[in-house]
């Protein structure tokens, strides 16, 4: 079995779509990525702030599986890590199949807990026309599949860098599939 790894880490101090790849990011428990516009105890995504700025931030860290970039390249889209707004790009881990509450140790100390799926928005098409449709699919039963990554909260502080191993800890009890948040 291949150990899943972090391939890219990124942040952006300004609200925007893409983030800037960095040599490392620092995660703070209950806050998110230091220096990223989406970090904070309460929601920081502009559309959510407009609805209720006091709701808890369940979207402190955005993770995307690098295999999505491969899939998009095969469809004719040129999308590099961090360009879809993710803080952490992974490889060797089916993020979308993990249940809610899964904990990921990223590197030696940082731990995040998965809270839900990223719900693709029109900003993806503003980045590249037709990309929204490419990050949406249907399963065998015809249900909508959102492939634009997962969201998480930070449980334990730590620095995360490309090449760091990822340890997966599934939650106890019956597993609940990730849903859009």
Q: What does the average pLDDT come to? A: 93
Q: Give the low-confidence spans.
A: none
Stated plainly, the CATH topology is called: M1 Pyruvate Kinase, Domain 3
Q: What percent of the residues sit in helical stretches (DSSP H or I)?
A: 10-25%
From the N-terminal CA to the C-terminal CA, the straight-line distance is 31 Å
**Domain module count:** 1
Count of helical stretches: 4
Broad CATH class: Mainly Beta
Biggest beta sheet summary: 8 strands, mixed
Pfam families: MOSC (PF03473)
InterPro entries: MoCF_Sase_C (IPR005302), MOSC_domain (IPR052716), Pyrv_Knase-like_insert_dom_sf (IPR011037)
Protein name: MOSC domain-containing protein
GO molecular function, one term: molybdenum ion binding
Task: Produce the secondary structure layout.
Elements: E1 5-11, E2 20-22, E3 25-28, E4 32-33, H1 46-52, E5 61-65, H2 66-74, E6 88-91, E7 103-106, E8 110-117, H3 123-127, H4 131-134, E9 136-138, E10 144-146, E11 150-156, E12 158-160, E13 166-169
């Amino acid at each position: 079995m291949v150990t899943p790894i972090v391939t890219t880490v990124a942040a952006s101090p300004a609200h925007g779509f893409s983030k800037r790849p960095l040599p490392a990011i620092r995660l703070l428990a209950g806050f998110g990525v230091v220096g990223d516009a989406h970090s904070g105890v309460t929601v920081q995504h502009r559309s959510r702030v407009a609805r209720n700025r006091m709701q808890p931030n369940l979207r402190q860290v955005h993770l995307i599986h690098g295999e999505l970039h491969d899939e998009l390249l095969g469809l004719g889209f040129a999308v590099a890590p961090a360009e879809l707004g993710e803080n952490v790009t992974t490889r060797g881990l089916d993020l979308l199949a993990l249940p809610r509450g899964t904990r990921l140790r990223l590197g030696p100390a940082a731990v995040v807990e998965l809270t839900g799926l990223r719900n693709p928005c029109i900003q993806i098409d503003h980045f590249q026309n037709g990309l929204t449709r490419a990050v949406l699919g249907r399963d065998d039963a015809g249900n909508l599949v959102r492939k634009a990554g997962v969201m998480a909260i930070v449980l334990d502080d730590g620095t995360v860098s490309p090449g760091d191993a990822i340890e997966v800890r599934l939650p106890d009890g019956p597993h609940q599939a990730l849903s859009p948040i």
